[in-house]
């Protein structure tokens, strides 16, 4: 792993850090949340990222998307994200697909090639399709549900989809998955109700600190899962807890 990402070695040890150095992750959807997921994973030193999105940067993206700047307006989301990621880690493999994931394009992807899939697509139908195909491919997937129209990032939570109680997107996806016999999926959702929305509010948008927190939480869940799969025989948390218990910090 490159020296720029040696912090993972210090935090978790060489063996588990090397797991990230081999990890192949696909991020479907590169909006406010997806852009943060991709960047956070790149900064962890993963081996490769596959970026899937058919959008272009717009002025309206500047309030929530990491790579959305006045200088990038009009450019392809995946190409701007790729350039930024390669500037973070010039050794990382970045595969880009300027397309939208649906029934027509799903055949372009062999999901079994990935160690983990992150879904931040806005469409419920595409989410269901991606989750279903990931299940068939036996590839772990985490899906971002309702984070639009939220003001409190502390209400975001990683949970099983069966525990979601707020948000129309999660409700639709949960219902459709049950029809397909899929009842357990790891998701990120907000428990915040949209009580603050008024008649003059514009629904369907997200703010930088909510989208960013959601993206970082998704990336964190992916990394923890990858390290957990590779280190089940290492009582990592217990040992680290004892070691850090008496750690002193300089003020």
Written description of the protein model:
By secondary structure, the protein is α/β, with parallel strands linked by helices. It has a single domain (3-192, 203-231), classed as NAD(P)-binding Rossmann-like Domain (Rossmann fold, 3-Layer(aba) Sandwich). The protein has helices at 7-12, 14-22, 32-42, 77-88, 124-137, 168-179, 208-230, 236-244, and strands at residues 24-28, 48-52, 93-97, 116-119, 141-144, 156-160, 186-190. Strands 3-2-1-4-5-7-6 form a seven-stranded mixed sheet, sandwiched between helices.
- Share of helical residues: 25-40%
Strand runs, count:
7
Identify the strand order in the major beta sheet.
3-2-1-4-5-7-6
Q: Helix and strand string, N-terminal first?
A: HHEHEHEEHEEHEHH
Structural domains: how many: 1
The global form is globular
The helix tally amounts to 8
CATH superfamily: NAD(P)-binding Rossmann-like Domain
Question: What are the key terms here?
Answer:
alpha/beta; Rossmann fold; 8 helices; single chain; 13% strand; seven-stranded mixed sheet; 251 residues
């Amino acid at each position: 792993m490159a020296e720029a990402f040696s912090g993972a070695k210090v935090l978790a040890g060489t063996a588990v850090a090397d797991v990230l150095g081999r990890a192949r992750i696909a991020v479907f959807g590169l909006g406010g949340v997806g852009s943060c997921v991709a960047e956070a994973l790149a900064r962890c030193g993963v081996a490769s990222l596959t970026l899937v999105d058919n959008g272009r940067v717009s002025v309206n993206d500047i309030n929530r998307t990491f790579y959305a700047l006045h200088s990038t307006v009009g450019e392809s989301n995946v190409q701007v994200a790729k350039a930024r990621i390669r500037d973070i880690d010039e050794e990382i493999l970045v595969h880009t697909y300027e397309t939208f994931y649906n029934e027509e394009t799903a055949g372009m992807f062999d999901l079994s090639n990935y160690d983990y899939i992150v879904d931040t697509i806005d469409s419920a139908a595409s989410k269901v399709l991606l989750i279903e195909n990931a299940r068939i491919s036996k590839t772990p997937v985490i899906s971002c549900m309702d984070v639009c129209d939220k003001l409190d990032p502390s209400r975001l939570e990683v949970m099983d989809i069966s525990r979601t109680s707020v948000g129309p997107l999660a409700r639709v996806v949960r219902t459709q998955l049950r029809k397909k016999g899929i009842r357990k999926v790891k998701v990120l959702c907000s428990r915040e109700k949209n009580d603050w929305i008024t008649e003059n509010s514009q629904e369907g948008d997200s703010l930088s600190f909510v989208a960013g927190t959601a993206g970082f939480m998704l990336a964190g869940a992916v990394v923890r899962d990858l390290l957990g799969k590779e280190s089940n025989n290492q009582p990592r948390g217990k040992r680290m807890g004892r070691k850090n218990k008496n750690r002193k910090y300089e003020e």
